[in-house]
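Recall from the previous lesson that a structure prediction takes nothing but the amino acid sequence as input. Here we apply that procedure to FAD/NAD(P)-binding domain-containing protein from Apiotrichum porosum. The sequence below is the only information supplied.
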Amino acid sequence: MTVEAADHKNVVIVGGKLLVSRNKLTPASFAGHALANYLATRVPATYRVILIDRSAFALHAPAMVRAIVVPGTESRNLTAPITQETVFPANSRHRVLAPVAVRELSRTSVTLDTEFEGSTELPFDKCIIATGATQPHPLRQLAGTSLEDYRVILRHTQEELAAAKSVIVVGGGGSGVEIAGELSAHYPDKKVTLVHSRTRLLQTASQSTNKTWGFSYSPIPERLSSSLEEQLTRRGVDLALGERLVFPSGPVQDTEWDGTHSSLGQLKTVTLSSGRTIEADYVLISTGNIPNSSFVASADSGAVSDAGYIIVDHTLRVVPSSTESPLAGEYYSIGDVAATPGRKAASTANMEATALGKLLVAHLTSGKEMGQYSPTRMSGAVICLGQPHEGTDLGAGVYSFPWIGDVAAPQWILRRMAKDYFVNQTFFARFVGERKIGPEDG
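The prediction returns the following tokens.
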């Protein structure tokens, strides 16, 4: 029996940032796209999946650390259009709405900024918020930026970094370390300083036990940090650990840093918290991800944690602050925006998407109560230090397994990651529509 579009029950997946904003960053959602792929071939015929994304194109986020440094990478192995033809097969009942933003969350519907099937109100049976997290520009595109405009921005950044004599990278998490690696690999004679507020690389804010699941993942192993520190030091990268940039509180001299970032136009004196000074003409901010949850907080501030993550229960359902909340319905959340245990990474987002997909399909098919999500306690981190050259360090990685402990990532994985950041396996493979996506799409 054929089901008309108006008779379908909608499973709405919101990726990218919810609200239109010219000064906010809106990465397309890895978790949301992965969930759409899982559900599209498994939900009952009376349901359809609607994937909403604020961006018209997706970025292969891991490769952005290279795209801002190495000329030519902005046009290859980096982006893909988010369209009906690239996401879903021909004649699919499922739909892609992009670029489209969600303006309001209600109990059983979301309000769009663009009409769909004659209305801006889109009713749903289930709504999954997978809006990801932001990173400092230009590691992510600004809302409303076209693909060509974004490529122009990336080329401009590449040109400024190439011209810079001394670059300060702020933030010693994964992205900051990889940017320092890309710079030192592509410009071995350039002065690069990596400033990190903690005493070792990859060490971030202390992790507290997750209130829902009762445990948290262990911090990055110290031996991984030490290996990366040794490799970067061998390349001549200056590591300023346990330091912060001191932002000026008043007027400064022309030769002093005024608190801005990107190109400074000339060498200027930057002061660190210890009193040490560095001469630099480029400051690049890479201080980590911020969950894209502000619009959820505007609907129900109690549904968002102090750290900005959307609070979910064992079924990955959003936990509202009260029964009167707009979110006190069939809202779920996964990925970088959700308060789920584990390191926020593409691999974790993919596992959460698959897990929620299984729970939803079982629930929609049987009509029984939603099952519970059981997160894996396995984790891993692989850090690449630029395109490999003969005799150069590749980076380092570690995989952590229950009962076994930490296992170093083999060299072949590091070489493969250094080549293209697994673009074919983890990015192009997401696009299963009738129009195939590959390197030529950017």
